[in-house]
Every structure is written in C-alpha cells, then in structure tokens.
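QA checklist item 7 of 12: single-chain prediction sanity check.
[x] sequence parsed
[x] length recorded as 241
[x] structure emitted
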Amino acid sequence: MKASQGDQQAILEVQRLDDQLASLAQREATLPETSALSSVVIKRNNVRDLRVAAETERTDVKRELLRAEGDVEQIVTRIQRDEARLNSGTGSAKDLESTQHELVTLGHRRAELEEVELTIMVQVEGITNRINELTAEEEELNLEIADLEIKKENALTIIINERTIVSEKRTSIAAPIAQDLKDLYTKLAKDNNGNGAAPLVGNECKGCHLTINTTEIARISTLPAEEVVRCEQCRCILVRE
C-alpha cells in the first residue's frame, strides 16, 4: 500500500488523538468521585435499612405497650370497683374480707404489670434514640452523597469538554486522509488494543517498543517514502519521521 507522507503523518496524529480519547475514557471509568460515591451510597443504604428496621421494631414494641397499658387499665378498673364496694360497706363480712384479699392480689398484679409497662416504655425510648441517631447519620450521608454527585458531575463535564475538543480535532485531521489508509488503521487499531499506527524512531517501533532487526531496518530504508511500512511485531503502521 502506498500513501503520501502527509497522510502517514496525519494517521499518526489520529493515533495520538485516539490515545488521548482512550485516556479520557479511562479517566471517566476510574473517577475517584465514582468509587467514593458508591462507597457512601452503600453506607447510606445500610444506615437507612437499619433505621427502617428500627422503626418497624418500635411499631411492634409500641403495640406491646398498648397491650400492657390495657392490662394495667383493666386492673385499675377492678381495684376502683373493689375499693368502692369496701367504702360502701355493703355485703357480708365474708364478702368484704374476700374483696380485701382480692385488692391485695390486684395490687401485686398492678405492680407487676406497671413494671412490665415501664420496661416496654424504656425499650421504646431506647429504640427512638437509636432511630434519631440513624436518621441524623443518614441525613449526613445524604449531604455527602449530594456533594460527591456535584463533584462527579463537574469532573465528567471537564472530561466531556476535553473529549469534544479532541474528537473534533480528530475528525478534522482524519477527513482528508486516503480512505484505504484510514480503513487499514481502523482494522489494526481494533485488532491491536487501539494501536494502529506508531512512529519509527531509530530502530524502535514506538507502538510495541520492540527493536526492529538490522536487516528489516535496512530494507525499510530502501523503500520509497510513500510506501506504507508495517511493524513485524505488532503489525501497526510504522510512520518514518
């Protein structure tokens, strides 16, 4: 294949621009803000799940508290009824004595139920405190996420702007290059991890950074400047500078 020296130099510049685009793509894929954001989002989600679980637990415990309060209320009602009966003095002595014993029993039962009620109330308070702490932590993490999202967006904007400039320059340089040379470059770049053309500096291919043997260098030196040379190692287009 033959191509003008201008086209060969141009295809080398296309390679340099493609290298820049690949570097920009790598920067985009490895933005520190992206990994930091992912880490904080995972942490926030874990805290949120703990908060939701705590709220569910508090709902269940509050249900237990309502039952305990109902039990205490029933005992208080019975105590008030018995006290009213004793205060009225109605009934036989045996009945009044039985009522007195029942009041003692109810008093013990009330104390037990109130202790249970107090324990549950303390439990509710502890869960509520935990929910408040988790909510505060979640809010802090949400602020951190919002800040990281802004930083990531700013970093991406810079990359996008740089990519636009490089892409426009590549389009402009590639447009006048002979189509067969562009097609060859495109195929080689696709098959060789993006490396389609490289300068020949001395006896070294700057694409694979391997030394070309003396015999091949001598052969290349005899070829016309328009002759397209390929590296024997990486097969990319060697551009003689």
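[x] summary fact logged: Residues 75 and 109 are 8 Å apart (CA to CA).
[ ] second reviewer sign-off
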